[in-house]
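Write out the 3D structure for:
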Amino acid sequence: MYNRNPQGAVQLLVPELSSIIELRYRILQTIAVAGPIGRRMILDTLNISERTVRNEITVLNNQKLIETTQKGMVCTSKGYEILEELKETFQEVSGLSSKEKRLEQILGIKKVIIVPGNVNDDNGSQQLIGKEASDYLTSIAKKDQTVAITGGSTVAALTNFLSPTKSLSTLTFVAARGSLGNEMNQQANTLVSQFALKCGAEFRTLYLPENLSETAFATMIQEPIVKEVLDFYDDIDIVIHGIGSAKEMAYRRNSSDAIMNKLDEKKAVGEAFGYYFNELGEIIYRINTIGIQLEQVKQSPHIIAVAGGTLKAKAIQAYFKNDAAKQTVLITDEAAANAILDQ
C-alpha cells in the first residue's frame, strides 16, 4: 500500500521545490541574524550568484518578509514568524534532521541541533548557533536557577539573542572559569555580565587567572570570595560551554614549551574546562584551574555545548568520547556534523 506522506508526495511532483525552499529560507535566515546587511554579505555567506540574490530579495520584499533601511536589509516581524513556522520543514528538506538523529546516536547524547554553514568560513553560522543556544536556554530555564558559562566566541554569540523573560530575568549567571589570555570580550567574566544585562538577571564573576601553580591553586581556593563562587558549582542547574581545539586553547593560555610538546606528543585534539583530550577521548593533561570541574558539569541537569566548523570536528568527537554527560545538547554547524558523519 502507498505510504501517505504529503511532503514526500509534493517532492515527487515538484522536485525543485525543496531547493527553492532551502535557498529562500537561508537568505531570510541570514538577514534575520545578521541584519541590517547588504547583498554583498549574502553573496559571500551563501556563495550564490548576484542575480539569484537579487531575484530572491525581490520576492521576500514583495511578501513583506524583509524591508530595506538606510543601513541595509532587515527581517520584518512577519519574516521572523515565517522562519519559526518553516523551521522544521527546512530541517527536513535540507537533510539536517536526519543528520541530527545520526549524530545523537554516534555521540550518545540527548539532542543535537545543526545549523547550516561553516563557522570557519562565515560569521553567520556562529550567530545561528548562538540563536539556537539562546532559544534552547529560554525553553528550559526556570525561576531562580544558576547558569555556569565558559568563555569563547561561540558562547559569546548568545549575547545578541538574549532578552528579558519571566524565567531568564530570575537567573544567576556564574563564570565557569577564571581569566584566559587577553581577549576580554570573550572571557567568561565579561560574558556573565553581558548575559545578565541582556536578561535583567544577576551574575557572579571569578576574576582570577585560570591557570595557576599548585601552590597558588591551593592558597586561592581557601579565600572566602573564591569559595563563594566555587560553592555555586556544586549546584549548577545549567552549563553552557564551548569545545576548543587543543593547540588553539594552549596558545591562548600562553602555555609553556614543555606543555605544548606534551600535547603534541600525546596527540591532543580537544579541550574543555581545562582538560585536554586525545582522539580516543582520554584525558592526557589538565590545568590547575579555579573553575567548574568536569565532575560538577556532569552533575548538572542541563548542559548546552556549542561548537562548530570543520576544524572543531575532532575536538567535538574527543570530548564526547570521554563519557560526556548524556543530558548534553550539542549545537553545531553542518560542516562539523558532516566531518564527523563522514568518518
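The radius of gyration is 21 Å.
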